[in-house]
Specification:
With about 240 residues, the chain is α+β, with helices and mostly antiparallel strands. It folds into 2 domains: about 60 residues, Orthogonal Bundle (Arc Repressor Mutant, subunit A), CATH 1.10.10.10; about 160 residues, Chorismate lyase (3-Layer(aba) Sandwich), CATH 3.40.1410. Helices cover about 25% and strands about 35% of the residues. It contains 7 helices and 10 strands. The chain has a 6-stranded antiparallel β-sheet. A two-stranded antiparallel sheet has the order 1-2. It has a two-stranded parallel sheet with strand order 3-10. A hairpin with a 2-residue loop joins strand 5 and strand 6. Helix 1 packs across helix 3 and helix 2 packs across helix 3. The longest helix is centred in the N-terminal third of the chain and has 14 residues. The radius of gyration is 23 Å and the shape is elongated.
Length: about 240
């Protein structure tokens, strides 16, 4: 029986450590020099294992720093109508939410948001910022504006779990969302909160409508591009001959 190449064993050992959570997202794996000493092989053999792990999406390399565990990217279907919490649970990932900031303003203090929510100058607007995590790893940061006409008083404890579950507990029914996805580079504050460098963020901006036609929220969520993606399905109604 042909003996399995040593680089495959090294590759499988690292994959096993990731699967057992001995190595987590963004953890640095052993250096090539350390792996050479551990397995008593040449740097060429180690490099072959590393290149294979990169191509399969298990790790990523930063020149001059080393190799790191890559987070298994979550793909959200555009138009699917699912929340961040539902997206995480569907993939066996534990969702998390940390409230960073909260305050209440009048419509006249936030004219842009007032117009988006179709409110008046004296209507209340709830504003809160939350860090969203998956298995404790930062995934996104969201900036949310909620109509005081739809939700007069806010339970801040609900903002550290699923906001949409809280909305439903109030007897409100979400009908649809309308928005767009763009990309931006993070601000220094976002880099600090998300614990990233100058990595591209996917920005999902949308308005959420209730079944009675009112606009409940206007929200911008900045997802870490390497950890979160968007997918879609297009159906062609007209048959092409």
């Amino acid at each position: 029986m042909k003996k399995e190449p040593i680089y495959i064993k090294i590759e499988q050992d690292i994959i096993r450590s990731i699967a057992l959570n001995e190595l987590r997202a963004d953890d640095q794996i052993m250096t090539e020099e350390q792996l050479c000493k551990k397995y008593q092989v040449s740097r060429m053999t180690i490099n072959k294992a590393i290149v294979s792990l990169v191509s399969k999406g298990y790790i990523y390399r930063i020149p001059g720093k080393g190799s790191f565990v890559k987070y298994n990217q979550v793909s959200k279907r555009i138009g699917g109508g699912t929340s961040f919490t539902q997206d995480m649970i569907a993939r066996g990932i534990k969702p998390g939410s940390k409230l960073i900031d909260y305050y209440v303003k009048r419509g006249k203090e936030l004219p842009f948001i007032r117009d988006r929510l179709k409110l008046g100058d004296d209507d209340l607007i709830h504003y809160f910022v939350r860090l969203r995590t998956g298995d404790g790893t930062p995934m996104a940061i969201s900036y949310t504006y909620v109509s005081g006409d739809c939700i007069p008083a806010m339970d801040l404890n609900a903002l550290e779990t699923s906001f949409y579950a809280y909305v439903e507990s109030l007897g409100l029914k979400i009908k649809k969302t309308e928005g767009e996805v763009t990309s931006k580079l993070p601000t220094e504050e976002q880099q600090k909160i998300l614990r990233i460098k100058n990595e591209a963020l996917l920005v999902n901006t949308h308005a959420t409508y209730l079944d009675d036609g009112r606009i409940m929220e206007y929200i911008q969520t900045y997802y870490i591009g390497s950890r979160y993606g968007f997918s879609y399905v297009f159906h062609r109604d007209v048959k092409v001959p």
